[in-house]
Amino acid sequence: MKVRALLETDYPAVKEIYMHGIAGGHATFETEAPGWEVWDKNHLKTCRLVALDDKDRVLGWAALTPVSGRCVYAGVAEVSVYVHRDFQGKGVGKKLLQDIVQESEKQNLWTLKAGIFPENKASIKIHEQCGFRQVGYHERIGKMKNVWRDTVLMERRSKLIGV
Prior knowledge:
Layout: E1 2-5, H1 11-24, H2 36-42, E2 48-52, E3 58-66, E4 76-83, H3 92-106, E5 111-116, H4 121-129, E6 133-144, E7 147-157
Parallel strand pairs: 4-5
Antiparallel strand pairs: 1-2, 2-3, 3-4, 5-7, 6-7
């Protein structure tokens, strides 16, 4: 497996993986994957990664979203990691998360945040393995198919940037 920057040409595979995450019901509150233009606008231009197999098939992706437009939060971003359903449990998500943490520090980001459904135990585990800690819990933060959902709030503070 290799990891490289996510390109616009990767987006059809990225979107498919995202749609599978949406369909699974434990990855996001979103109900549909946007087109490239909207996705591109909503994510930081740096810190966009894809994991590829030896045939250059996209196995998963990771990207960062700014948490605020205010300058004091310029070093804080929310992380998203999605893995193709056929490759879950094979280390793809952990590798992407490790690499995006390293890339985020190169871009002077000091805090990465994640909001994870408590049912997504695998995601919580890899975030913990990559230095994230649980900092809170949003109870009944949003509805999904008319059912209230909770999220576990996780955060990783860089030991290199913003110290």
